[in-house]
Write a structure and sequence with these properties.
Strand order of the largest sheet: 1-3-4-5-6-7-8-9-10-11-12-13-14-15-16-17
Radius of gyration: 21 Å
Helix content: under 10%
CATH architecture: Beta Barrel
Structural class: mainly beta
CATH class: Mainly Beta
Distance between the termini: 47 Å
CATH superfamily: Porin
Shape: globular
Length: 309
Amino acid sequence: MKKTLIALAALASTAAFAQSSVTLYGVADASLSKVTDKSAALSSAGAMNNGTSRWGVRGTEDLGGGLKAGFNFEQGLSLNDGTLAKSGAGEFGRAAWMNLSGGFGEVRLGRTLNPSFYAAAAWELTGAANYSVVVSQFGAVLGGIRNSSQIAYTSPNMGGFSATVGYVLKGNSANEKAKVDLNAIYANGPLAVALGYNKVQDAEKNVHVGARYNFGMFTLAGGYMDPAGDAKGFSIGGAVKAGPVDLVLDIARDTEAKDTDLLVEVKYPLSKRTFSYVALLRDGKKKAGALGAAGDDVTGLGIGIRHNF
């Protein structure tokens, strides 16, 4: 009997383990970057990198009845010297959250990319690269990219449509100001359309809407941005696939400041998880952007390689 009970316990333990999964993942991105009036440098988390080098761990557990629990912890890091590249005050500033998901959708709790960011990423041509002109020109419209202590609900995907509502309580804000952050996204086949909105209590709202359509060999995308304050404008761009090479030309203009940022990106796949890239970003001088302060007319060049694991 004792041997039977031990065998059953071992079997139960194995079955429970089989219902859980933990994944180690990350990005290694190294770029030789040159910006106007600055010396060339090797970078792994800068404005002329395609993405920020990072590592993380995520996992899910099947709780039964269609319900799952999950988590994600993520750190940025430097390939130059191995130090952490923080995104916020914490060691895991890029992501530190848990969730419950099922047929009802998902509830996510903790520090995570905010709904407004996911709205822009749904249609932006570079896949939300560090050198994106949308972020360079209108980064404020995203409301900080990440929210700490966020309570978020994402609806189930209904024929390509989903929506997320995020909220940060007053008690979790240093200035005792609550924040609401939301998106509505339709992504089905060649078409993606998204709306992002965020607002801190007693402050002005940030709103943006954008769309992307894939015609096959050519993709067209554009958006309208209305961040808090005087800034306002649009982005428009196109992507062409020439054999294995992806070419992007993207422009973002602040019509109030009369400032234009321009990006040319070339990507060449080396494998399913690795690609090389060249990016040229022209940062307009009328306002501060990804590369320089207001009054500076700056150009950045990045030649790099990115590996996803």
